[in-house]
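Sync notes, pocket subgroup
Present: LS, DG
LS reminded everyone that the earlier model was apo-only. Rerun requested with S-adenosylmethionine included. Inputs:
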Amino acid sequence: MDKFLSLSGRFREVPDSIARSLAAADANARSQLQSRFREAVQSLPSVQVSCRDYSGAEVTIGCPEDITDNQKQSIMSSLYAFQPWRKGPFRLFGIDIDAEWHSDFKWDRVLPMLPSLEGKILGDIGANNGYFVFRALHHRPAAVFALDPVPRFYYMFDLLNYFAGEENAAFGMLGWQSLFDLPAFFDVLFLMGIVYHHRSPLDVLDAVYAALKPGGVAIIESMGIPGNSGVALFPAGKYAGGSGMYFLPDSVTLQRWLKRSKFREIEPFYSAPLSTDEQRRTHWAPVDSLAEFLDPFDSSKTIEGYPAPWRHYFRVVK
Ligand SMILES: C[S@@+](CC[C@H](N)C(=O)[O-])C[C@H]1O[C@@H](n2cnc3c(N)ncnc32)[C@H](O)[C@@H]1O
């Protein structure tokens, strides 16, 4: 948590509200409830890491020869504590972690739309375990801030960065709501897989707008539905097996939200059905996944009878 404060403090004085939120999150993470994750990180062996590579699909940290068999056992048991691994893939000391999501597919779509990241301040809102943070670090930004309020993901990132030792990246257990306390701070923001999980998508977009510098770029990616009629699906309960789903926009609706949130140069660059190649059950995520949540007789529908999920991607400028 101090890391987030000291790294952000290099660029701007950080308001007390952020420090207080981080302290509260820290206390929560230290609670009994999270002890399994904390112990998984605290029990990691001390290792001299000889290689790191974030340029390819697999975020690679450490070479197989950096660790002994005993150390490998200890690392494996910490990695298993975090199952299911939703985002990835990673390769740690030769251990391949194939996550439920091929997050590299998402990054490959986003990367050509980004400005040069060199020397920039980046933020990933709802960063999960930090997969995109590592991919972004390859492009030599000044700093990457991962924001996600969930302690499990804080500890996952902690585990990965314990070995990677990246000084220019920090994780803050903060939600998008904290972005209002960092006005005009970021050059580039990622808001991917977030808007449909919140009751008030326009408030989330306002927060992103507030935290971007004028001229800054944001990538907004959302689950949604097909079509161009300017509607959003509001499911009665679960959608494609997932809970905590609110407004699932078609592409036109998401574009309207972005316009109303004052963004300019709104550029849609990808809109397509989510595939079972991109989201699927794996050894590291032994869970029901997209294939199990689509209608077995009609893959254009979810098991609840709604249109099957699409993903919509936009690049916007403040
Ligand atoms: C569907 S995942 C998306 C992860 C990643 N951004 C991606 O595109 O694959 C949603 C993430 O939002 C996080 N989250 C939950 N509440 C949040 C909040 N208030 N602000 C930001 N992120 C939040 C969750 O912990 C989770 O990691």
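DG: The chain has a mean pLDDT of 97.
LS: The domain at 2-40+105-287+299-317 is CATH 3.40.50.150 (Rossmann fold).
Action: DG to write up.
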